[in-house]
Amino acid sequence: MGPSPSKLALKAIAAACLASAAAADPDRDPCRALARALPGEVHLPDSAAYRAENMYWSNRQAEARPRCFVTPRGTMEVSRALKTLTELRAPFSVKSGGHTAFEGGSGADKGVTIDLVNFREVTVWSDNKTVTVGAGNRWINVSRALDPLGLAVVGGRAADVGVSGLILGGGISYFSGTRGWACDNVRSFRVVVSSGDAVTASPTENQDLYWALRGGGGSSFGIVVSFDLEAFPQADLWTNSIIFPGASNKTLIPLFTHLSNRGLVENPQAHAYFVLSYQPGISGFAVLTSFFQSTPLPNHAVPSVFQPFQSVPGAVSNVAQVVNISTQSMAIDQPSGSRQTWWDTSVSMASPKLFEDIVSMYEDYVHKLLEAAKGSKLTTFLVFQPISQNVVDAMQKNGGNALGLKPSDGPLMIVQISVQWSDKNLDSVVEGSSQSLIEDVETLSKARGLFRGFIYMNYAGKSQDVFGRYGRESYDRLKKTAFRWDPNGLLEDLWKGYFQVRNFEHD
Ligand SMILES: Cc1cc2nc3c(=O)[nH]c(=O)nc-3n(C[C@H](O)[C@H](O)[C@H](O)COP(=O)(O)OP(=O)(O)OC[C@H]3O[C@@H](n4cnc5c(N)ncnc54)[C@H](O)[C@@H]3O)c2cc1C
Ligand SMILES: *[C@@H]1O[C@H](CO)[C@@H](O)[C@H](O)[C@H]1NC(C)=O
Ligand SMILES: *[C@@H]1O[C@H](CO)[C@@H](O)[C@H](O)[C@H]1NC(C)=O
Ligand SMILES: *[C@@H]1O[C@H](CO)[C@@H](O)[C@H](O)[C@H]1NC(C)=O
Ligand SMILES: *[C@@H]1O[C@H](CO)[C@@H](O)[C@H](O)[C@H]1NC(C)=O
């Protein structure tokens, strides 16, 4: 049952009146109010600062037009900004690295965007076991500070991605085989909650919030200003990228599922993913297998779990290197400047046949998309990322995270689709067909008893039911925690753009 059309019309008129009242009453204009509360930190359209802040990885985000950006310089200023916005009931969003693919993910069109760019701290504690990382950093800022000290954290794999979104949604890392995801390695969070108070969330303080922020995203709970991350000794990393023609997929898939089920468990220092990409440059498909070993073997030998791939014929290139995290993360970074989408689901990795069939479905999908694109540039990626049993087990530390994956749910494979394109007119066909492809993968895996259903938030399409897929227990606990820290539903109502648990009905 929805509201009747006449009620909808009345609501629309009421909303329009309120909006014009806010615009007409300068005291209720959020950007003016923020400029009084945070002098010098509000940036209006057409300023150089606004243009710099409105840079995002995906063009779909960069096209949003916030009324202003606000750039708080400290925790008190985040608190003041949040109080100002909630008092005025003004819609807002929060930006860290701005790497969400879809429009509005971390920018509020016609609202206010809080840009955390000034939260630049990277401080290594004197015992070398903890690093305090400000919420506005990119991973490159962290690795540039840690590489020279022979330290690392469980963080993102690509240089320019923001620390905040990646950690709050989960965070797949080169080091996950022994340590779990990025969120599992947070010692504590400093966070400004709905009331404007700054609180600490850790295993000993506000444990419910500590649990929720490890995979529950930020926007239901508060604005994190800094993370205390567990640091560990780490020298250069062994990396190996092999590119094969697309036709090799059939040979490679059984090797990759075997690696994911067995090899990664035997050798938890190993990390791997599999990409089948349609590349307009070669008008065809290519497979990229990426392999990592956190402590290189003597003479930089290929770890035995990756050996089978070395002898698959037809490799177009095969590059092995030992490099620091900074160099590696820059090598796999993806430049901004395209329209982007991501969608994902997860399946059992017991059956190589399932992945062969997913590849066929992907091939049809690509051909249909190319037909619709009529020659305009479009690049697609089908990505398999294993969550091997050792990773699921490592996620149980610190009382477990919010993702809802129990040891008995593992192992599982994330199946992810991502597309880069340039023509805005293709948005709806790209979104619609990517959604359908992921739905088809779910239907097929269900029919074979191989469905897992966990959706990784940070690779999800805008309309995917991320929290629903965390399972009832985790979902209910997230809702309860959100209700405790945001009892009036202010964040739920006003913080726009990303995945939120819902406690209230909103207009
Ligand atoms: C090239 C590339 C490589 C990637 N590599 C990896 C990878 O190796 N592993 C992996 O797991 N994922 C990876 N991802 C996915 C990545 O985790 C997500 O895109 C993530 O959301 C990016 O974080 P961000 O801070 O840049 O995003 P933003 O778009 O800035 O933020 C994402 C969400 O978090 C909210 N938010 C931001 N800052 C805060 C804060 N301080 N407090 C509360 N909420 C906040 C925003 O409001 C928004 O809702 C990659 C993405 C790209 C584009
Ligand atoms: C992070 O590093 C980039 C690239 O070196 C630099 O431009 C940026 O200012 C740094 N950001 C912070 C928050 O230190
Ligand atoms: C921390 O690392 C630095 C740089 O390697 C080193 O000089 C220092 O002795 C280390 N401190 C401890 C307590 O291990
Ligand atoms: C990483 O390695 C490269 C190449 O050896 C080197 O130039 C660079 O300074 C190193 N980076 C850091 C942050 O240590
Ligand atoms: C996968 O491999 C099969 C067998 O070689 C081939 O027919 C198919 O075209 C390949 N798919 C892609 C997308 O390259």
Protein described:
The protein is α+β, with helices and mostly antiparallel strands and 507 residues long. The chain is built from 17 helices and 17 strands. Strands 14-11-13-12-16-17-15 form a seven-stranded antiparallel β-sheet. Strands 5, 6, 7, 8, 9 and 10 form a six-stranded antiparallel β-sheet that branches. A four-stranded mixed β-sheet has the order 1-2-4-3. The chain is globular. Mean pLDDT is 95; it is low at 1-14. The structure holds flavin-adenine dinucleotide (FAD) and 2-acetamido-2-deoxy-beta-D-glucopyranose (4 copies).
Describe, in short, the structure shown.
The chain has 507 residues and is an alpha+beta fold. The protein has helices spanning 5-24, 30-37, 48-53, 59-62, 75-87, 139-146, 163-169, 176-179, 207-213, 249-266, 307-310, 325-332, 352-373, 389-394, 427-447, 472-485, 490-494; strands at residues 42-43, 68-70, 92-95, 112-115, 122-124, 130-134, 151-153, 186-193, 198-201, 222-233, 237-245, 270-279, 284-293, 317-323, 339-347, 378-387, 412-421. Helices cover 35% and strands 22% of the residues.
Beta-strand level of the residues, as a percent range?
15-25%
Number of H- or I-type helical stretches: 17
What's the total count of β strands? Answer: 17
Q: Assign the structural class, choosing from mainly alpha, mainly beta, alpha/beta, alpha+beta, or little secondary structure.
A: alpha+beta
Helix content: 25-40%
What ligands does this structure carry? Answer: flavin-adenine dinucleotide, 2-acetamido-2-deoxy-beta-D-glucopyranose
State the separation between the terminal residues, measured CA to CA: 14 Å
Spans where pLDDT lies below 50 across 5 or more residues: 1-14
Biggest sheet strand order reads 14-11-13-12-16-17-15
Write down the overall geometry: globular
